[in-house]
Amino acid sequence: MPLLELTDVRARYGQVAAVHGISLTVDDGEIVSLLGANGAGKTTTLRAISGMVATEGSLVFDGKPLPRKAEGTARRGITHVPEGRGILGELTVSENLKMGAYLRRDRKAVASDLDEVTSELPWLRDRRDQQAGTLSGGEQQMLALARARLARPRLLLLDEPSLGLAPIIVEQFFALVRRLNEEQGLTVLVVEQNANAALELSSRAYLLEVGRVALEGASADLREHEGVRKSYLGY
Amino acid sequence: MAEFVQQVVAGLGDGAIYASLALALVLIYRATHVINFAQGEMGMVSTYIAYALIAHHGWSYWPAFVFTLGVSFLGGFAIHETVIRPLHRAGELTVVMATIALLVILNGLVSWIWQPDEKILLSPLAGGTWSIGSVAIPQQSVYDLIVVLVCVTLLWLLFRYTKLGLALRASAVDPSASRLLGVRVPWMLSIGWGFAAILSAVAGMLAASAQFIFTPGFMQVTIIYAFAAAILGGLESPVGAVVGGLMLGVTINLLGTYFPGQISPDMRLPAALALLLLVLVFRPAGLLGRTVVRRV
Amino acid sequence: MITRRFVAGLVAALVAAAVILLLPLFLSDTHEYRFAFVATFFIAALGLQILTGYAGLISLGQSGFMLIGAYTTTILSVDHGWHELATIPLAGLLAGIAGFLFGFPALRLRGAYLALATFAIPIAVIALAKKYSDFTGGGGGKNLTRVLTGHEAYVLTWPIAGVMFVLAWLLLLGKLGRSFRTIRESEIAAVSSGVNLTVTKTLAFGISAFFAGVGGSLYAIVIGFVNPDTFSINLSLLLLIGVVVGGLGSLVGVVFGALFIEYVPLYAPDILSWAEKPFGSPLDPQRAGAGAAVYGFSLLLVLFLAPYGVAGLLRRAYKSLAPSSYTH
C-alpha cells in the first residue's frame, strides 16, 4: 500500500481551478518528483496534500484520509517545506529549529536529533542567535531542511527547493536529501522546475501540465523521453 | 527639586497605566494586524467586573483582581474567536469597524447594566505617600509601576522562554509557515487577544483606583494616551510601547506642572497628541520603531 | 456615459427627491423636525463617505469639524449679527480649511495610525472650545437667536442636503473620484499611476471637513443651541457607523445611514424591550447606554450579514431583478 495516494484530486484558489484531477502515489522510502512548467499545478498539488487549499477528490495517507487543514496534516507526519522556504524570519536560527520540533513530546529524542543535525551543520549552532531572515538563500534552505528533520516526518514535501540557489548549493542540498533517504528511509515528494536535478534525485516522477498529469514513470525513463528532453531538460 | 522627583514618580505611575494598555495594543497589532479600538473599553469592562465583585459580592481586592484577570483572558479570547476571526477575510476596514462596534457595544452595555454614575474602586494601594527627606513619593504611583512591570516581565518571560510563547511569536511572524509546522494559528491568535485583555484589565483597574472615581467613559482618554505611546514606540515594538508609555506619562506630568497656564488638565491630551505628531514628523516609525526591510 | 447604472442612479435620485418633496405633507411638525436632523447628519456623513468610503481613510474626526461649523455659525450670527444662512458657506469653508490643515501632518500616517490621529480631533477641538469660553460660551454652550419650527427646519435643510449631494456626486465623478478610489485600493498603485498622494489626501480631508462644517452649521441652526460635548467622539462614531450601515462607497446609501443615525437611538428602548423579553426583562430599556448597545450591535450585524450595507443589499436586489450583462 502506498504511503500517499491521491486519486482524481481537484484544487482551486477561489474560483480559479489550478488542479484538474491528479492521481499519484508515493511509496514508503521513495523519492518522487513532480515536474512541470510554471503554473502547471505542482505547488498547488503539494498544498492540496498539506491542507493549505480547498480540495476535492481522494487524498489518502497511510491508509487514512488526510485532514483538510495544515495543522492536521502536520500532525499526521507530513512536513511541507513551502516555496520560499517558510523560514520564520524574525525568529532566530535556534528558535526556528525548535519550532521544527513543535509537535513532538519526546524531549530527549528531540535533543539528540538536534545534536545530530547541528553536528552535520555546525554553523547552525554557531549562529543560533542570528535572525533567520538575515541568512543567505542557501543557508535558509539548509535551515528549512534541518527544521523539517526535527519534525521526524513520515513524508517530506519540498516545494521548489532549488529556486534562487546557486547550482553548487543545489547539489549539496540534494545530496543531503538523498543521504537522508538512503540512511533513514525518509520519503520525499519534491516539486521542481529544475527537471535535471529532480530526475537525478528521484526514482519516479510525474510530469504535470496545466493541472493534469501528462506523463509518469521511472525517472530514468523520463530522462530518455524525447518530449521531456526537449521541453524540460534542454537537449 | 523635590517637586520634580514627585512629579516624575507620579508620571511614571500614570505612564505605567498607559504602558500596559499600549502593550495590549501592540500585542494585538503584532498578532492580528488590527488596531483594536475597543481595547480601552475591554479594560473598562474588566474594571466593572472587579468593581461588581468587590462592591456587590463582598470580595476583597486581590482575589477580585486576579479573578478579573482570568475572566478578562477568556473575554479577549472569546472576542477574537467570535467577532474578529470570522470577519478577518472581509478585509482590514471591516475588522476595524468591528472593533469600533465593540467599543460602542461595550460602553453601552456597561452603562446599561451598571449605570453611568460615578463609582469607586478602592484598592489597598491608594492614597499614602512616603516621605524621603522633603520629597513626598505617592505610593499609588510606585505600586502602579511595580504591578505593571511585574505583569510585563511575566509576559515577556512567557513569550521568550516557553513553547507557547514561541508558537505565539511564530504565528504573528508567519501564520502560514506556522500552520505547516503544526501550530493551531487561529487558536494562538485568540490566546494573544486573551493576554492583551489581561493587560488592558490591569490598566483599567489601576486607572480606576488612581482616578478615585470612574464612569463608563473613563478609559476613553487613557486609550488615546496608550495609542500615542504605542505609536511613539513604533507600533510593532513591545519595548517601545512600555518605554513610550512611561515617557509619555512623565513628560505630560512635567509639562502640566511647569506650564500650568498653557497645559491645563483639559489641554493635557491635545498637548500629548501635539507631541506625538511632532515626533512622527521627524521619525515616522516612532522613536523605537524600525523600518522593517524584508528579504524576498 | 449613459450606462444602465447611471439611469438606475438617476431614477433613484428622482424618486428620493420626490419623496423628500412630498414627505412634509404627511409628517407632523415634530417629525419634520426630526427629519431636519436627518438632513444635517446626511450632509456630514456624505463628507465622511467621501473620505472613508471613497478614499479609504478612516476618520473619527468628523464631529470635530462639525463643531467648527456649528460654532462659526453661532458666533457669527449671535455676536456679529450675520444672517444664519449667510454663515453656512463660511462655516463649511473654515471647517474645510481645518480639515485641509489636518491633512498635512496626517499624511505621514498610514491606515491605523491615521485613524488614531483622527480620534484626537474631536477631543482637541472640544478642549479648545471649552478653553476659549469667551468666544464660545465654554462648556455651558451658546444659544442662537432664532428658533425654527419643524417645517422651517425641514425646508431649510433638505434643499441644502440635495445641493450637497449633487456636489459630492460631481466631485467624485471625474479624476478626483478615481484618484480617491485608487488610494483606497493601494497607495503604491496610486503613486505609480501618477496620483499625487499629498494633494489628494489633504484634499480628501478638506472636502470631507467642508461637508461636516456645513452639516454642523445646519445642526446648530436647527437645534438653536451649541454645546461642545454634543460633538464628542460618540458623534463621530455614530456617523462612521451610519456610513458603514448605509454602505461604504455608496452616496445613496448615506441616506439610510442618516436615517439610522437619527432613528435607531430613538427606537432603541423598544428594540431592547423586545430583545429582553425571553430573559425576563431584567433591565430597564430606557436607561442610558441602551441605545449605544443597540446601534453597536446593529453595526456588528451589518458587518456580518451585509458588509456592503443597505446600499449593497439594494444593489443585489436590483441585480437579481434586472440581470445585467456585467460579469460580476
Task: Briefly summarize what is shown.
Helices cover 73% and strands 4% of the residues of chain B. Chain B is mostly helical and 296 residues long.
The chain pair forming the largest interface, with residue counts per chain, is:
B-C, 48 and 42 residues
At the fold tier of CATH, the topology name of the domain at 4-85 and 152-233 in chain A is Rossmann fold
Rg of chain B, Cα atoms, Å:
19 Å
Oligomer: heterotrimer
Estimated share of beta-strand residues of chain A: 25-35%
The CATH architecture category of the domain at 4-85 and 152-233 in chain A equals: 3-Layer(aba) Sandwich
Task: Tell me the number of structural domains of chain B.
Answer: 1
Q: If strands are numbered along the chain, what order do they take across the biggest sheet of chain A?
A: 6-7-8-3-9-10
Q: Tell me about the biggest sheet of chain A?
A: 6 strands, mixed
Percent helix of chain B, as a range, is over 70%
H-E string of chain A: EEEHEEHEHHHHEHEHEEHH
Major sheet: arrangement of strands of chain B: 1-4
Poorly predicted runs of chain A are none
Under CATH at level 1, the class of the domain at 4-85 and 152-233 in chain A stands as: Alpha Beta
- Strand-pairing-aware structural class of chain A: alpha/beta
Number of strands of chain A: 10
From the N-terminal CA to the C-terminal CA of chain A, the straight-line distance is 36 Å
Helices and strands of chain B, in order, run as HHHHEEEHHHHEHHH
Average pLDDT of chain A, to the nearest integer?
A: 90
> Helix segment count of chain B?
11
Question: Into which percent range does the helicity of residues of chain A fall?
Answer: 40-55%
Write a concise keyword list for the protein shown above.
heterotrimer; B: 296 residues; mainly alpha; two-stranded antiparallel sheet; two-stranded antiparallel ribbon; C: 328 residues; 14 helices; globular
Strands, helices and their partners?
The complex is a heterotrimer of chains A (235), B (296) and C (328).
Chain A: E1 4-13, E2 16-26, E3 31-36, H1 42-50, E4 54-61, E5 64-65, H2 70-75, E6 78-81, H3 93-100, H4 107-120, H5 123-126, H6 137-150, E7 155-159, H7 167-184, E8 187-192, H8 195-201, E9 204-209, E10 212-218, H9 219-224, H10 226-233
Parallel strand pairs in A: 3-8, 3-9, 6-7, 7-8
Antiparallel strand pairs in A: 1-2, 1-4, 4-5, 9-10
Chain B: H1 2-32, H2 39-56, H3 61-87, H4 92-114, E1 119-120, E2 129-132, E3 135-138, H5 139-161, H6 163-173, H7 175-180, H8 185-211, E4 213-214, H9 219-232, H10 238-258, H11 268-282
Antiparallel strand pairs in B: 1-4, 2-3
Chain C: H1 4-26, H2 29-54, H3 62-80, H4 84-106, H5 111-131, H6 133-136, E1 142-143, H7 150-173, H8 175-185, H9 187-192, H10 197-223, E2 225-226, H11 233-246, H12 253-276, H13 290-305, H14 309-321
Antiparallel strand pairs in C: 1-2
Helix pairs in contact in C: 2-7, 2-8, 2-10, 2-11, 2-12, 3-4, 3-5, 3-10, 4-10, 7-10, 8-10, 11-12, 11-13, 11-14, 12-13, 12-14
